[in-house]
Specification:
6-stranded mixed sheet, alpha/beta, 3 domains, elongated, Rossmann fold, two-stranded antiparallel sheet, 465 residues
Length: 465
């Protein structure tokens, strides 16, 4: 059981559920307390200790029966047991005729699986899996297709069709209606049981493959330093989960700095002025206080080359919303879209997914200059001397007008203008890049080619650097 518990925790992690070592220990203690006799109580104990967020409930529910219940044989019905008299004789005659039509091997499978209620053996299941390509499946979304292929390889539909013809033959031979209904009912129950057995096998195989792939993954520090452009789908999924943990850490640090700032530093000039009545003796201390919570306007390029960087940037900022005085966000490819209200109505992850669906990537149609012009024309009222304007993009305009006049207007109106570029500085100015023209107008420039660099750049927004 301990080995199975460890495998279950690894499978949860591979499916994106965050489980710490302490939570794993809690699960082991809870399991030892409640035992496994009451399966539902055991399941609730594991769910209580291992699942913390609502969107992690579906993977838990999907994986639990694969690790704690897949060994149980499906409930099947032996329709031939107890049948006697004339019905048994008619059945033997019909089976003999059916054997001549279908062949003895097909008949044996038909009888044992659908009428006698025999589950698929380990050898049969492995053979079906190999024929369907199950060893190559590694994602839950592939499960329905794998199940369909394995049922097709088993010939389940053909077997049921043959059975229906077989029952018609029995009716023609005079078998009683009650016996026919009994055979048909048992066949239906056994078909559902076989489908359930296949479903469990597919789910278990995919979970095992996910766990194996998860255990082969490089350390998180290495993934954090992988360039956004070089990420595979598995690395992207892993970083999506890490972004939430990263935001929690940054939020804690920002909150700590904010609490310290409220105490303030001693203001020597103010203290001396306030204590002139005491002959200059500093009895009454005065402190300088500054508010660290920034007011932000984000302008994010979501074209193909910057898409993952923009996704993680928006997620980080809005996961840290309690450390922001106010934030407005805009996304663009060839036109500017105000996306602020989507983040007001939805959780960050859901809002980001909606943004990416609404602005699908195209082919070389990015127009940063036009988006800057729209921002200055229609949304300049959201920018004042307390606002930090953040541009996330590679500064490529497809040789369109870069609209440097708009950058100058933003610079003159905002507190700070910060640019985050996922491209390496050695590429700035190559091809259609206008980055060298934009750079002199920026108060800060950050290379954000991977999640580690992006996290450090975001942290600087909240410590004032």
């Amino acid at each position: 059981m301990d080995r199975r518990m460890v495998d279950f925790v690894h499978a949860l992690r591979a499916a994106g559920v965050r489980v710490s070592l302490a939570e794993s220990e809690d699960a082991f203690r809870a399991a030892s307390q409640v035992g496994v006799a009451d399966r539902e109580e055991f399941r609730n104990a594991l769910r209580l200790t291992l699942v913390k967020e609502e969107h992690h409930i579906p993977p838990f529910d999907r994986l639990f029966p694969l690790y704690f219940g897949a060994d149980e044989p499906p409930a099947m019905d032996d329709a031939l047991g107890g049948m006697g008299g004339e019905d048994a004789e008619r059945l033997r005659e019909a089976l003999k005729k059916l054997a001549e039509m279908l062949g003895p091997e097909v008949l044996r499978r038909l009888l044992e699986h659908l009428l006698k209620g025999r589950p698929l053996s380990r050898q049969e299941m492995d053979a079906l899996g190999r024929e369907a390509g199950l060893p190559m499946a590694g994602r839950p979304s592939q499960a329905p297709w794998m199940e369909s292929r394995m049922k097709q390889a088993l010939g389940l539909d053909e077997m049921m069709q043959a059975l229906m013809e077989f029952l018609g033959e029995l009716a023609a031979r005079g078998m009683g209606q009650e016996a026919l209904e009994r055979l048909a009912e048992a066949a239906g129950i056994n078909r559902e049981a076989l489908e359930d057995q296949i479903r469990r096998e597919v789910g278990s195989a995919i979970a095992r493959r996910q766990r194996e792939d998860y255990e082969k993954q490089p350390p998180l520090d290495e993934v954090m330093d992988l360039p956004f452009r070089g990420l595979g789908e598995r690395e992207i999924d892993r970083l999506r989960e890490e972004v939430r943990r990263l935001a929690a850490r940054l939020r804690s640090r920002a909150a700590l700095r904010h609490r310290r700032s409220r105490k303030g530093r001693i203001d020597m000039r103010g203290t001396m002025r306030a204590n002139l009545r005491y002959g200059g003796v500093p009895l009454d201390l005065r402190r300088k206080r500054r508010v660290l919570k920034p007011k932000l306007v984000l302008l994010c390029d979501v074209s193909t080359s910057v898409r993952h960087c923009a996704e993680f940037m928006l997620t980080l900022i809005y996961e840290m919303q309690d450390q922001v005085a106010r934030a407005r966000s805009y996304a663009f490819i060839d036109r500017l879209v105000d996306i602020s209200h989507w983040f007001e109505e939805n959780r960050p992850r859901k809002a980001v997914a909606r943004v990416l669906r609404a602005l699908p990537p195209g082919s070389y149609n990015t127009d940063l200059g036009a988006s800057l012009a729209t921002l200055c024309r229609d949304h300049m009222g959201h920018i004042d001397r307390r606002t930090t304007v953040i541009v996330l993009g590679d500064g490529r305009n497809n040789f369109n007008d870069p609209r440097l006049d708009c950058i100058e207007a933003l610079k003159g109106r905002a507190r700070r203008l910060v640019w985050m570029n996922p491209e390496a500085p050695c590429l700035w100015g190559t091809g259609d890049s206008d980055m060298p023209a934009y750079a002199p107008h920026c108060d800060a420039l950050h290379e954000v080619g991977n999640l580690g660099q992006l996290a450090r750049a975001v942290e600087r927004l909240f410590d004032g650097r």
